[in-house]
Amino acid sequence: MTFEQAISHASSILPYGRSEALILLSHVLVKDKAYLYTHPHEDIDGKQAEEYADAVQKRAVGMPLQYVCGHAGFMSLDFLVNTSVLIPRPDTEILVQAVLDRYIPQKVRNVPSMPKPGHESFCEAPQILDLCTGSGCIAVSLAYYIDNCFITASDCSVSALEVAKQNAALNGVSEKITFKLSDIFNAFAGMKFDVIVSNPPYIASGDIAALQTEIRDHEPVLALDGGPDGMFFISEIISRASIFLKPGGMLALEVGQGQADAAMGLITAAGCYHGAKKVDDFSGIERVVLTNIL
User: For the chain, which residues score pLDDT lower than 70?
Assistant: First the structure.
């Protein structure tokens, strides 16, 4: 079977046709798409043909492309992903950028000459806590772009932490991140941080069944389910974060559609925060809530 024959067959059964067929074949052959375009009549060997058929079948029945390939892009970095962790999404880049703006006052998303490790230095290294780290996309991105920082990344899932550790190693920032098995703040008694950042579970329990098949049937429910109204973890973090923030420290949270005002209300009710604001995602949805401790 030639490259073109394999692509043509896969295109007829994949959700996004030829574009996904090319991505999957590129992944299996470890060749870029330009090579596939310029060698359409080259044959695929038997083992690779089997691997490609398996990948195409997984994608055809609804497995997200990122899980099939085992990788996802985020903040111009590469991340390993599997069904133990959520697939990193562009909305979460808004959250990362909000923290970066505190330490690197320039936009880094989609900028070709992005700052590299060593580009910036600070009088004091910020201590950052990433709750519900999952794949580690937030912690690893912050460690990569902020030269002088120390990050603690926590999750209640052992398997998620293993993925996050691999991603820290993949992106060369293992020495800047400590990984902790913890349910929210349980492992951090007596500790203080300059920033607490989190993309917690925020889907209402009753809404999970109505999610896209790709999400509902493949991504970990543990990382999606935010309780009856989706606000359980958001509320827990807001109510307890003040204990773990240094004076002037920042809390940065990703929230679900329609949850930003409720989160702002919780921040106001807590009585220990100031300067709260909301940040829209790329679709104009209020996606991130930021505030500082008094």
Answer: 105-123
Is there a domain that residue 75 lies in? Answer: no
Residue whose token pair is 């910036």 = 120
Task: Name the nearest CA neighbour of 103 among 237, 177, 194.
Answer: 194
The pLDDT assigned to 256 comes to: 97
- Asked, for residue 118, whether it belongs to a domain, the answer is yes
> 3-state DSSP: the chain helix, strand, coil percent, rounded to 5?
40, 20, 35
Cα–Cα distance measured from residue 131 to residue 292, given in angstroms and rounded to the nearest whole number: 17
For residue 11, give its domain range: 3-61
Strands 193-198, 177-181: pairing is: unpaired
Q: How far apart are CA 6 and CA 164, in angstroms?
A: 34
What is this structure's pTM? 0.91
**How confident is the model at residue 124, as a pLDDT?**
74
Residues in the chain: 294
- Angle, nearest 10°, between helix axes 158-170 and 137-145? 30
Same domain, 119 and 176: yes
First-to-last CA distance in the chain? 66
